[in-house]
Amino acid sequence: MSDTASRFQHPQTRAYWARLDCGFAQVADVFEECLYEALATLSRKGVEAYVDSARVLGKLGRGAEPILAFLEAWPSAAAAVGEDALPAVMEVVGVMQKSPNGMAIAPFMQTLAPVARRLHARDQFVRYLDIARELMVRTTGSIHGFHQTLPSPGLPDFFAQAPLLLAQIPIAGLGNWAEYGIRNYGRHPQRQQEYFSLKSADSRAVMQRERHGTLFADVERQLDLYLRALWRSHEHLVPYSSAFHEIRKPVPYYDKLGMRVPDVYDDVPGVPGLDRYRATLAHMVGHRRWSRPVIADNYSPLQRLAIECLEDCRIDTLLAREYPGLGRIFRGLHPAPREDACDPQTQSCLRHRLAMLSRALLDPNHGYSDPALLEFVARFHALLADGASSTREIADLALAYVARTRRQSDQYANVHFDDTVVDYRDDNRQMWAFIEEGDEEEAFDLERQLDLQEIDRLPPRHYPEWDYASQTWRPDWVSVYESLHPKGDAAAIDRLLARHDALAKHLKRLLELLKPQDKVRIRYQEEGSELDLDVALRSLIDFKSGATPDPRINMSHRTSGRDIAVLLLLDLSESLRQKVAGSEQTILELSQEAVSLLAWAIERLGDPFAIGGFHSNTRHDVRYYHLKGFSEGWSDDVKARLAAMQAGFSTRMGAAMRHAAHYLGARRADKKLMLILTDGQPSDVDAPDGRLLIEDARQAVKELGAEGIFTYCINLDPKADDYVADIFGRHYSVIDHIQRLPQKLPELFMALTK
Amino acid sequence: MIDHRQYLIRQEPFYQPQGREIALYEAAYAARLPVMVKGPTGCGKSRFVEYMAWKLGKPLITVACNEDMTASDLVGRYLLEAGSTRWLDGPLTTAARMGAICYLDEIVEARQDTTVVIHPLTDHRRVLPLDKKGELVEAHADFQLVISYNPGYQSLMKDLKQSTKQRFAAFDFDYPQAELETQIIVRETGLDADICARLVKVGAAARNLKGHGLDEGISTRLLIYAAALILRGVAPADACRMAAVRPITDDADIRVTLDHAIDAVFA
Q: Of A76, A447, A476, A506, whose CA is between 20 and 30 Å from A254?
């Protein structure tokens, strides 16, 4: 102890070192430096609290890692969020230490400084600490239910990703993102880790949803319209992710396959994100319109840099000539480097000079005084005075500029980068043609070998699912695979129908009453098939009393039919195999009979009618079977499929309804009716929260209602009253006496469509 | 007899030819061929017909067609009077009797059974049977039938029958070229040529969106409205929004895009 203390010359340092009371040699190595930083940023009391807190961290018994990370992080963190946030931090540390999550203290400390810098304000920082605590408490597992014994699997990853996340999403978004992970992967350590380390697809999708700025997905159509309207161009726009490259941000570019733009643009002062997209697209359109490739092999990299820069300026000038408003956007996005920002003695200033030249070319009020710069601005404008000039001429001008302003220091490795990046400009890969394939250039157009495997079934359709707890959609959550139902023996269905002969006769009588009364009167016709007495009398009275009579005293008739499209959706889940109480038949067999009778009845009415069946085995495998299509008649094929109906797996109702609505919605009919025949509440093996799928189905019913589809549920579950009204409102019937289903179902249908 | 002079065009309407259409129309009139004028809304179809009527010195009777129009609205009908009835000629009959140019504007708007009554007038017979009155009107030697229609928003329900189409010689109109359109706006309103050229540019941007959410681009007529507003002191961007963009679309994305185009042009 005393020999480490003697390393410090300054008595104040020595005093604080004594107060720290720490024996780790690594800590002694950095202590003095950290302390000086703390003394520079914190108050006296703050420094004392800093050292005291470090002392606590050193004595946790978790090695030197936590105290080292804290010593380095806190001074700059405190500068961002204020030193009075320290007690809150230490409280979190205390909670972690008392729970099995002590291992996460070091990761927490390591990213404390970048997180604090991102958040600026103290209340936001406190919110961050709350989110972390919440995550810890809710994901720390216990084996026997009493003591928490298993550390939170996702917590260290959460801390590691926090700075990256906060760069993309606001603090409220981080809360939503963490909440989503806790709720969906709270019980699944491996998935939880994947989620919180941003490795799983939905983790990224949820983050994408929470991002700030203008999302490409939100403005895609507007950008497409923009290209068409202003530039008469139609490009395929491909977004690339800008979220996961901290160091090297990808740059927009275009090639044969389309224009690549970032998936999100934040607003910058004076220029909203949408205008940044427009500027980027306009610049690429300009290149496509006016740039011709030049041979790159003859130029050095620095010369190429200059040619690209001036060519970009030519494009921007021509664009602004076409639409003067673009010039304002370009100037808003273009950096304005200070003339003396770069020191030519120690730094390579070429980028700086070019950025200034570029600024001066776009902005007449640039205020630079360098004579060479002014001369080349004049030469540039002279070149473009009449006409568009060309890439070739601009290349010559750029070479002259590089030659004129060349400095020894241009070759230095220490390049001045500040304020030299113009981020709406693309990477200019289309500007160059190469005679020899050099090793310094990437080959962009390499033919990629894709071995596509033959797919043996239709690709799935993805549907979102409603998460009632957070009132948000889970994007592309459910995969629905559709197929034709396998066939069985059609004669079986005929035998079933024969057995219900008496019932069929009864139904037939009802059907006669339902047959469309297809005459509709059209009144107030000047010429029509018969006289409309009411109106004729009125006209006569007018006439007798001297007023001008209405000549439209006839009426005619128009035929109109029932225009109802019906889709019957069958729940084919495992529970259908149960035998009905007091009967030898299973629910499945009774459903078969009922559906056959209904199909027969609807066929006689002539309404377009389809039957689909579904079951699910987790969200990754929802099966949707076509039993009868709208255009199929009541044929042997359909009967054969009905005869082969099988029960199995679970009931993910919402996804099946959305998929069925996809077909029903495409029908042209005045009324669209979806009948859902089910024997239990929506459930699935991967949804432990029973409420979730019920709420999702309810949401699906709402969506369908908005699309003009009327949903009606026929439920065979005696306990259905607990939930069915939540899903379908008042549009349901519970059939208690299941044996009577074959009679009830067609009757219900007729009552509904009368 | 109705005084035919009320249908004469007294002042020369301004019409800027886009091609040889004036000479072609004169030839068609000399042969008394029925003429069809096609083109998007607000591109100058009606103005052209008006101009030709003035140039030929013939009266012009214009009928704006709508879907409630019946054959008797064109041909004429009996009116009830106390104790008796009186026949009243419709505009088509009037034109046929006096030798006017009868212009049926937006003919597809009329019901198809209505359009059939013009058939006997548009072939070699040149007669109009008034079956209710029991009269066969022979068209005056100067009579000519002109119809206009806009193929742009034709739906399945609104198209001319082949039997109707094949009775007409046709002109295809479109929005004029940029310089010409600029001249037209300058001439119509007296606005500064530079601003007019910018207006035309906004119009061109909207016309590029036809079929991508817009049924019709911004018409020359709307651009002239915008110019008229600018002349009265409205800022150009506001005038464009009010007169040219807001009327043609309710689609938010298109509105935003066109607003941006206006800002980009009038920077």
A: A476
